[in-house]
Every structure is written in structure tokens, then in C-alpha cells.
Amino acid sequence: MIVVGGIIWLLSTGAIPSPRSQEGTQTPEGTVVADGTSAINEEGQVLNNLGEAAKLDAEPGTPEAPQQSNPVSAEDLPSSVIKLTMTETGITPSTFEVKAGQAVTVSVTAGGDQTHVFKFDDAALNAVAVGVGPGETRAITFNAPSTKGEYGFHCDVPGHAGRGEAGTMIVK
Q1: How far apart are CA 52 and CA 48, in angstroms?
Q2: Could you write out the three-class secondary structure of 95-138?
Q3: Among residues 125, 118, 119, which one has the least CA distance to residue 149?
Q4: Angstrom distance (rounded) from CA 113 to CA 122
Q5: CATH architecture, range 2-11+25-171
Q6: What is the pLDDT of residues 57-93, one digit of tens each?
Q7: What is the phi/psi pair of residue 141, to 5°?
Q8: E strands, the chain, in order
Q9: Quick count: other Cβ atoms within 10 Å of Cβ 124?
């Protein structure tokens, strides 16, 4: 367990879930891209644990927010997933593009031997946060903002953004 910015992140090195198909797993609520992430309904809306539209400005990890996955194997994620790697030298890739309002799944892998926390700079995307331990990969599914523009993200572990662990999501 680590605490960053007042948020408790439970990190585990549990078993890797079984591989997923390109489309993800169908549940009564919708499609789940990675074990533990929020479902996407037929209308393309990401749902929270309450079965409602996930709130992007909620506190991360609360029932209203989109949920991060259990530990997964990055190789088992569908090709549609935006795969980021965070290391001591930065985030790769540091920029990615999405369509306004689209359901997006981002995976975060901690390269090296440090813990990282992926977080957006904009408070409107406060709920989109992923904590990963060394060598771990987790994912989160959320709807991109409907407002086009650039949205910065960073590693929320103190000192990490200052050494270059930052990037930009471009919403078109």
C-alpha cells in the first residue's frame, strides 16, 4: 500500500488474469476491456460500480469513478488500448490522441523498480488515476472529455513529474 496525494493505492503482485479477446469480455452491463475495469455499455458510455455513467471528477477509486484494473499482462490487452510505460526517465509514449467523448482504455506499466501513479492535471479528469508497482501493468477505461484540446498528465508520485514523467492526451 502507498499513499499519494491523500489517496491510498493498494498494489499487488497477484496472478495475471487470462488473456482477453480484441473486443474484451461481455458482461450484462457491457464490454470490459481488462479484468476490474469499468464496463462500456452499448452507447459507448463507461459505467461506474453503481451502473451509472462514470464521473470523471470523482475521487479516484470511489464507486462513482471509473475503476482501474487488477494487475494484467500488457501483451494480453487488445490493440485498441493505449499502452503507456512510466520509468525514471519519462512516459512512453508521452503523447496520444483520442476522439472527443469516446470510450478510451489506457494501460500503465511501471518500467524499472519504482512505483508510479498516472494522473491527469485537469481536475475535470480527477477520477482517471492508475497506481502501479514495479513491473506491474494496470488499465483504466473512461470516456474522453467532450471538449477538444490538450490534457496534460503526469506521475503523481512526488518528484517524478519534475524529472520528466509527464505527457499530453490530445482530444480531437
Answers
A1: 6
A2: EEEECCCCEEEEEEEECCCCCEEEEECCHHHCCCEEEECCCCEE
A3: 125
A4: 28
A5: Sandwich (2.60)
A6: 999 999 999 999 999 999 999 999 999 999 999 999 9
A7: -115, 135
A8: 2-4, 7-9, 25-26, 31-32, 82-87, 90-92, 95-98, 103-110, 116-120, 129-132, 137-143, 149-155, 166-171
A9: 12
pLDDT tens digits for 122-161? 999 999 999 999 999 999 999 999 999 999 999 999 999 9
Angle at 105 between CA 60 and CA 42, to 5 degrees: 100
Phi then psi dihedrals of residue 53, to 5 deg: -60, 130
pTM over 0.90: no
Selection from 25, 133, 28, 128 nearest residue 82 by Cα = 128
Grid coordinates of 140: 483504466
Question: Three-state SS for 76?
Answer: helix
C-alpha–C-alpha distance, residues 167 and 107, integer Å: 14
Pairing of strands 95-98, 166-171: parallel
Q: Which three cell numbers stand for residue 45?
A: 458510455
